[in-house]
């Protein structure tokens, strides 16, 4: 009895159009597994490290800007409170006036951080 090497069955890729029997649909092009920038980051190459450091620097810059704005605005409160003013005005500034400023700086920071991440994602996905 002659020996036949065992053959593996041939693999076929089934696409949606061919599964439905639609031969008029254009053939689908295979998508790359990973865009180049994403694979650079996943493989932790020097270029991938540079991409991640760029994101971290932009996030740090936004955080330090927000911190500086808060320090400048809230840090001047003792000077404002040292001025002779009615006690009700001092409490109004402390109790009500600070929060909109803190909220505005926090809102700016969140929008900036999201924009940095969206830009980074756009760079990586291209």
Q: Which structural class is indicated by helix and strand composition?
A: mainly alpha
H/I helix tally:
5
In whole angstroms, the N-to-C terminal distance is 58 Å
**Rg, Å, rounded:** 30 Å
Determine the fraction of residues in helical runs and give it as a percent range.
Answer: 55-70%
Shape field: rod-shaped
Extract low-pLDDT stretches.
none
Q: What pattern of helices and strands is seen along the backbone?
A: HHHHH
Strand content: under 5%
Sheet having the most strands: none
Roughly what is the average pLDDT, rounded to an integer?
79
Number of strands: 0
Q: Which terms summarize this structure?
A:
0% strand, 126 residues, mainly alpha
Architecture overview:
By secondary structure, the protein is an all-alpha fold. The protein has helices at residues 16-19, 36-42, 46-75, 77-82, 87-125. Helix 2 crosses helix 3 (46-75) and helix 3 packs antiparallel against helix 5. It starts with 15 loop residues before the first helix and ends with a helix.
Summarize the structure.
The protein is an all-alpha fold and 126 residues long. Helices cover 68% and strands 0% of the residues.
Topology:
Elements: H1 16-19, H2 36-42, H3 46-75, H4 77-82, H5 87-125
Helix pairs in contact: 2-3, 3-5
